[in-house]
């Protein structure tokens, strides 16, 4: 029997579909590149419907990501100073810094889990924390700062966390996100008290 001549349409269709997929992938990559650094990535396939709009959830999660980054950077700096403090205030500051970094470490989970509850991934790498934090990281110097500079840096760090928390709290309150408001209110009380107690050492 004579062979039926194959149409070239199938091949052309396959090429067209491939081009469309490539174009879509390129557009998606461009959209991701245009997303602000603070915007978190979706962390769940199933839709989240907790009575807060997707736009508000995304912005609250972005704010909490910045707050988490500030909190982690402050925790790390406090732990660093606990290890490296010297001088006449050693005993008092060594113990004080330990109390503060232990409390801060335990609180990090609550913030990260709140971001997850909103449907987004929490930042979890040093690169992300450095990019998102408003607190400068303490460089690994051969000589650590003296105790007064350590205390000054921790006052500034706790106050920076308070400012970030307040900005995040305002939007969460406007969106009716009571759990986030409660979380940030509790953290404000802790960090305002830390800043006050540390500042008192310098007066």
From TrEMBL:
- One protein family per Pfam: Ferritin
Looking up InterPro entries in the UniProt record yields: DPS_DNA-bd, Ferritin-like, Ferritin-like_SF, Ferritin_DPS_dom
Skewed-composition ranges (Low complexity): 24-35
**Could you tell me one molecular function GO term of this UniProt entry?**
ferric iron binding
Q: Which residues form the signal peptide?
A: none
> Which residue numbers delimit the Ferritin/DPS domain?
62-203
Location of region: Disordered: 1-40
PANTHER family registered for this protein in UniProt: DNA PROTECTION DURING STARVATION PROTEIN, GENERAL STRESS PROTEIN 20U
Family membership noted in the UniProt record:
Belongs to the Dps family.
Q: What is this protein called?
A: DNA starvation/stationary phase protection protein
């Amino acid at each position: 029997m004579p062979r039926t001549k194959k149409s070239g349409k199938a091949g052309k269709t396959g090429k067209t579909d491939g081009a469309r997929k490539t174009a879509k992938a390129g557009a998606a990559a461009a959209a991701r590149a245009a997303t602000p650094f603070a915007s978190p990535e979706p962390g769940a396939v199933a839709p989240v419907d907790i009575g807060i709009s997707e736009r508000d959830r995304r912005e609250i999660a972005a704010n909490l990501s910045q707050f988490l980054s500030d909190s982690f950077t402050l925790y790390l700096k406090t732990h660093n100073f606990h290890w490296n403090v010297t001088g006449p205030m050693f005993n008092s500051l060594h113990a004080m810094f330990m109390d503060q970094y232990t409390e801060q470490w335990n609180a990090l989970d609550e913030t990260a889990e709140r971001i997850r509850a909103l449907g987004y991934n929490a930042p979890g790498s040093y690169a992300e924390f450095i990019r998102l934090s408003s607190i400068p990281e303490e460089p690994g110097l051969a000589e650590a700062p003296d105790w007064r500079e350590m205390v000054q840096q921790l006052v500034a760090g706790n106050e920076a966390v308070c400012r970030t928390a307040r900005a995040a709290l305002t939007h969460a309150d406007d969106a009716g996100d009571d759990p986030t408001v409660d979380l940030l209110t509790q953290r404000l009380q802790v960090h305002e008290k830390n800043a006050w107690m540390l500042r008192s050492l310098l007066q």
